[in-house]
């Protein structure tokens, strides 16, 4: 088939049915040309596809290892040091200075994965996440073969500079090879990953996340151009994040109290303030299950959740700094009764 025939075929089929099937076949054709050294034609094909409002080029149904991820446009509040690091990543990528591998480390709920989505959106790329369920295999040696196939696909993506590849929770496949408790097979996988990382196309942006940084093989961590620590939230940072989360969620609820001063006190009352991801879940659940006839019910529920499901006594609430009015709201007891009990203690 001549090149002109392929281009004509794409032009004609853009107006036909089965657009998803045609899109996938078009991407497959682009891959073939790219694989055989005609990257310019592959990019031209992808450009033709992207010009159609109904036909957006993606990788779905083409790779069993890579899954497209929908990007979130909701606000992502982060501490200034982390935000500055993310700006540094965006600056490095936009200036094409050869920095393309990043590792996000931190406890669960600190915003690592959501930050990857935000970075992807801000630099106008598409996000593909590695599907570990297809990558890891119980058969001896198969995971190493799958890993090689995965990186081969990554390195031969048509228009590869348009993608960010995410290895979410990379500790699932990369272990410390000197740990005596590690399986020999996983040690081979780690060694294979190191080799594949070394041959990664410089046009590909790769980001990995982990909750278990200390368990990663040090040779792996050295391969990344930058390591971003997400365990840098002060209590004040977490409270400000909680306010942003609440403000966004309140748009979906009517007749709900918007007492931010009381809300902040509730968050500060926790002995250990949860990370943003956990705070989001607690706030969302408190709102979802609240009594719509009582505007402050979600605040009562949130307080209980932050104190292991316990209803705090009036003296305890007072010690935590809540006023008589606030205690009345959180307990459903009248202000006069609250004042009387406090005067008796």
TrEMBL record:
CDD domains: RecA-like_protease
Family annotation (Pfam families): AAA
Keywords for the protein's UniProt record, in alphabetical order: ATP-binding, Nucleotide-binding
Protein name per UniProt: ATP-binding protein
SUPFAM superfamilies the record matches: P-loop containing nucleoside triphosphate hydrolases (SSF52540)
Family (UniProt): Belongs to the AAA ATPase family.
Domain AAA+ ATPase: residue ranges: 98-234
Organism: Candidatus Minimicrobia vallesae
A GO MF term: ATP binding
């Amino acid at each position: 088939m001549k090149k002109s025939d392929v281009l004509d075929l794409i032009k004609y089929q853009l107006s036909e049915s089965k657009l998803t099937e045609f899109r996938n076949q078009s991407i497959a054709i682009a891959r073939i040309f790219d694989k055989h050294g005609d990257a310019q034609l592959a990019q031209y094909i992808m450009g033709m596809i992207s010009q159609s409002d109904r036909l957006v080029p993606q990788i779905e149904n083409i790779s069993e290892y890579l899954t497209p991820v929908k990007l979130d446009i909701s606000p992502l509040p982060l501490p200034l040091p982390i935000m500055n690091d993310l700006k540094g990543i965006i600056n490095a990528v936009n200036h094409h200075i050869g920095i393309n591998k990043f590792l996000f480390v931190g406890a669960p709920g600190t915003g690592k994965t959501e930050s990857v989505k935000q970075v992807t959106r801000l630099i106008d790329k598409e996000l593909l996440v590695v599907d570990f369920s297809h990558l890891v295999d119980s058969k001896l040696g198969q995971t190493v073969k799958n890993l090689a196939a995965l990186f081969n696909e990554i390195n031969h993506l048509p228009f590869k500079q348009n993608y960010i590849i995410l290895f979410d929770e990379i500790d699932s496949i990369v272990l410390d090879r000197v740990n005596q408790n590690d399986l020999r097979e996983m040690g081979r996988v780690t060694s294979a990953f190191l080799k594949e990382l070394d041959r990664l196309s410089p046009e590909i942006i790769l980001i990995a996340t982990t909750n278990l940084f200390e368990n990663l093989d040090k040779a792996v961590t050295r391969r990344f151009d930058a390591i971003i620590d997400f365990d840098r939230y002060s209590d004040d940072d977490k409270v400000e994040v909680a306010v942003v989360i609440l403000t966004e969620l309140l748009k979906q609820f009517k007749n709900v109290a918007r007492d931010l001063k009381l809300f902040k006190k509730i968050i500060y009352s926790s002995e250990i303030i949860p990370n943003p991801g956990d705070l989001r879940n607690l706030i969302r659940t408190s709102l979802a299950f609240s009594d719509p006839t009582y505007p402050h019910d979600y605040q009562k529920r949130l307080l209980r959740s932050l104190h292991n499901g316990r209803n705090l006594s009036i003296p305890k609430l007072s010690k935590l700094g809540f006023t008589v009015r606030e205690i009345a709201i959180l307990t459903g007891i009248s202000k006069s009764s609250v004042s009387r009990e406090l005067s008796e203690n």
